[in-house]
């Protein structure tokens, strides 16, 4: 049975989509069957894997509405062993449309039941908010990875996110685990980056992944070519970092 991992943080620009795309691609290279679900209306995970967003007819919006099945929404992409359920700007409307629906927090969970066994890992790229889309992702997920940027405001808002996760565990998903906190955009030359790493490791200990994602030009360039870092430059520091993260995730889940 596949493990569903949400990549979530209500702060924007912390590396959620970069992590979703490249963790999925790295797991695929390590011969795991992966489904990447783009649950962000900005659709950056979709375009980041070379899928033309303008051509999307069936995606996350339709499966949340239950007008189409996840199997109908799945697209093959250039990353080996990785399938994608794409997003589109129309996903913006889903929060308003679901507001009056009964069990609105369970729409994604219910939709994924039919395909969960088809994959080793299902990765959900969440929107930068704690709205209904993210709530659906966390209710459907078995665990959550929280990317934390190695910057001054890194820990601001983390408490709010952890409280939201606790509420979801109490009300909607008692089995939701924190897969780990992932330090991103690390620059070893900056004292501040090193201080943030120390603070996070001191406060959260074993919850923090050993892998740290370093600042890397190639990581920033890859999405503009519609490729994961593994396809774009497998020898880059970014590719090495994400392959290590994938190995860490696999090891943690094989116990």
Give keywords:
about 260 residues, alpha/beta, 8-stranded mixed β-sheet, 8 strands
Helix/strand layout:
Elements: E1 3-7, H1 16-29, E2 34-39, H2 44-47, H3 60-65, H4 70-73, E3 75-76, E4 82-85, H5 94-98, H6 107-112, E5 121-126, H7 132-140, E6 143-149, H8 158-171, E7 177-186, H9 191-204, E8 208-214, H10 217-221, H11 229-232, H12 237-253
Helix pairs in contact: 1-12
Distance between the termini: 15 Å
Share of helix, binned: 40-55%
The description of the largest β-sheet is: 8 strands, mixed
What is the number of beta strands?
8
Mean pLDDT: 91
The Rg value, from CA coordinates, equals: 17 Å
Summarize the helix and strand pattern as letters.
EHEHHHEEHHEHEHEHEHHH
The proportion of residues in beta strands is: 15-25%
Count the DSSP helices.
12
Shape: globular
Task: Indicate the structural class.
Answer: alpha/beta
Strand order of the largest sheet: 3-4-2-5-1-6-7-8
Query: Uncertain segments of ≥5 residues (pLDDT<50)?
Result: none
């Amino acid at each position: 049975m596949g493990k569903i991992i949400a990549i979530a943080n209500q702060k924007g620009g912390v590396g959620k989509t970069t992590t979703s795309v490249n963790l999925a691609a790295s797991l695929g290279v390590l011969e795991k069957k992966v489904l990447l679900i783009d649950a962000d209306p900005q659709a950056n995970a979709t375009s980041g894997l070379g899928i033309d967003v303008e051509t999307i007819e069936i995606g996350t919006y339709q499966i949340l509405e239950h007008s189409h099945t996840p199997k109908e929404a799945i697209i093959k992409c250039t990353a080996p062993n990785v399938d994608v359920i794409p997003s589109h700007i129309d996903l913006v409307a889903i929060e308003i449309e679901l507001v009056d629906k009964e069990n609105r927090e369970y729409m994604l969970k219910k939709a994924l039941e039919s395909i969960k066994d088809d994959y080793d890992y299902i990765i959900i790229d969440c929107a930068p908010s704690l709205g209904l889309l993210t709530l659906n992702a966390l209710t459907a997920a078995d665990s959550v990875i929280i990317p934390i940027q190695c910057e001054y405001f890194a820990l601001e808002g983390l408490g709010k996110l952890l409280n939201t996760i606790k509420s979801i565990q109490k009300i909607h998903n008692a089995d939701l685990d924190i897969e780990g906190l992932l330090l991103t955009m690390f620059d070893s030359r900056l004292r501040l980056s090193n201080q943030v790493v120390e603070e996070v490791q001191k406060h959260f200990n074993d919850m923090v992944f050993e892998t740290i994602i370093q600042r890397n030009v190639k990581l920033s360039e890859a999405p503009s070519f519609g490729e994961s870092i593994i396809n774009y430059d497998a020898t880059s520091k970014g590719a090495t970092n994400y392959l290590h993260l994938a190995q860490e995730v696999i090891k943690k889940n094989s116990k």
